[in-house]
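tool_call: predict_structure(chain=1)
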Amino acid sequence: MEGGAFIPDCGSIAKLIEASTGRFPEFFGKPSKHTLDYIIQETGYEPDEIAIVGDRLYTDIAVADQSDVMSILVLSGESTREDVKTSDVKPNVILEDLSEITKML
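tool_result:
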């Protein structure tokens, strides 16, 4: 957060649930594969007809990881080319920003 502020995210709530129940909850969101399953189910498209566009390797791009879905990382947000080099999650395409997507169409 700006200025070093911190806002707890869903991980904090998950740990609370785990501490009180002894079970870690399963997330439905990025990068859960349930998210991709839901997109496929709701759109009716096949995985190879879908592209996930995002600026975070560990959430947006990870949704498509190890699937037939195309992943497009835009460098106008959080992740950098250096992050890609060190990450296990690799996008299919890397673009400087969203304006470059039209060149792909």
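agent: Residues 15 and 22 are 10 Å apart (CA to CA). Proceeding to next step.
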